[in-house]
Design goal:
With 93 residues, the chain is α+β, with helices and mostly antiparallel strands. The chain has 5 helices and 3 strands. The protein has helices at 6-9, 12-21, 30-37, 41-53, 72-87, and strands at 28-29, 57-62, 65-70. Strand 2 and strand 3 (65-70) form a beta hairpin. The longest helix is centred in the C-terminal third of the chain and has 16 residues, at 72-87. The N and C termini lie close together (9 Å).
Length: 93
Amino acid sequence: MGDNIGTLFFKDKQVRLLLMLNEKNKEWYISDLAKQANVTYIHTSKFISKCEDFGIVAAEKHGRLKRIYLTEKGRSVAAGVADTLSKVGIAAY
């Protein structure tokens, strides 16, 4: 998003992570998500943890890894964010 109207309302890294999680048929693990979004692992992990607290994200353990995915509530939030971005003329990631 950079320096535009979207940054008045949304934080770039969090929006990028949320919208990436909303990609269909894609499995995400924290390390892969962080790498693809160009965000630190720690930042991504803290964001995911907060999203879990709000019921936006859920996780499944696969050995030492946790697969991260959006809940129905999370998909609704992601759709709302993408819609808002499009209304101010910003393409979603």
